[in-house]
Design a protein that fits this description.
5-stranded antiparallel β-sheet; 292 residues; 2 domains; alpha+beta
Length: 292
């Protein structure tokens, strides 16, 4: 193993793409995943994503999602995936598209916020046109509510009961490939034409398009009327706007439940309060008890 290169990264590169890694820098780390940019001995630069053995989804399921949508939306090429020799973990190795993301380009002023939101909407539309195969992961809504219930008190779920009912009672529509976490930093700009590529398909699954669009609105803080219209007007497919609003309430509540105590929690609480004023019909208003 080359000094400074984690053992799992070194073994993954050797086994899955046939070239040892001589450099590695960590790009991100979560509870069950870690992502590295690695330089190989043959001169290639690749991105290595490691999945812990305890992850419900792994490198194999993510690689399947990427390859399933590759004909409809730009994505990084999958170079190798599978179990790492000597480890229970799995690894996904893709081409390195570079460090420039849509989010960083917007923050630096290179791209306007309006242009970035339109780009997000266009990419979502292309992704949602990809055919959903039988192997696509599915996460029923009741499972999502159950998971949320383990992180927040019953009163929080009771508060958004009308939104939950709107989602549960919605007419069934054909599922689409949902990215599940699309925002500016999960779009990489590559090549002379700065082609937008979708990355990080960790949470990709089949589901309603309104859920995926709402997730993007929530993660980009585009819930205000003007910003939301920028996204929905640029999105090329039909949307049920009542259902879209209900999903926005659900995803905002989930972000609040997963936030860290302190400023982050306060931020999401304010956004949830803003939604309750903007869409009061999706919240349960507590009535004061009568006293004699």
């Amino acid at each position: 193993m080359t000094a400074g290169v984690p053992a799992a990264v070194s073994r993954a590169c050797t086994a899955l793409v046939g070239a040892p890694a001589i450099t590695a820098s960590r790009l991100s780390a979560r509870s069950r995943t870690a992502v590295y940019r690695a330089g190989l001995v043959d001169g290639r630069s690749v991105v290595v994503k490691l999945y812990a053995a305890t992850a419900l989804r792994n490198a194999i399921t993510e690689s399947a999602a990427i390859r399933a949508v590759a004909d409809h939306v730009p994505v990084p090429a999958v170079l190798g995936y599978g179990h790492i020799p000597g480890h229970e973990a799995t690894a996904l190795i893709t081409t390195d598209l570079g460090p420039l993301t849509l989010g960083s380009a917007m923050r630096s002023g290179r791209i306007s916020e309006e242009r970035a939101l339109k780009d997000l909407a266009g990419l979502l539309g292309r992704l949602h046109r990809a055919p959903v195969q039988s192997f696509a992961p599915r996460r029923p809504f009741y499972e999502q509510v159950t998971s949320l219930g383990r992180r927040c008190p019953p009163s929080s779920l009771d508060r958004i009961a009308p939104a939950l009912a709107a989602i549960a009672d919605a007419a069934h529509t054909a599922p689409v490939w949902c990215h599940g976490d699309l925002h500016g930093d999960n779009i990489v700009l590559a090549g002379p034409s700065a082609v937008r590529h979708l990355v990080d398909f960790t949470d990709a699954a089949a589901g309603p398009r309104e859920s995926d669009v709402a997730q993007t609105l929530v993660m980009t803080d585009a819930l205000s009327t003007l910003r939301a219209r920028t996204v929905t007007d640029a999105y090329p497919l039909a949307l049920d706007h009542h259902l879209l609003a209900a999903w926005a309430v659900f995803h905002t509540t989930r972000s609040w439940a997963h936030s860290s105590p302190g400023e982050d929690r306060a931020l999401w609480a304010r956004r949830l309060d803003d939604l309750s004023r903007r869409t009061p019909h999706l919240f349960r208003t507590r009535r004061p008890e009568r006293t004699r």
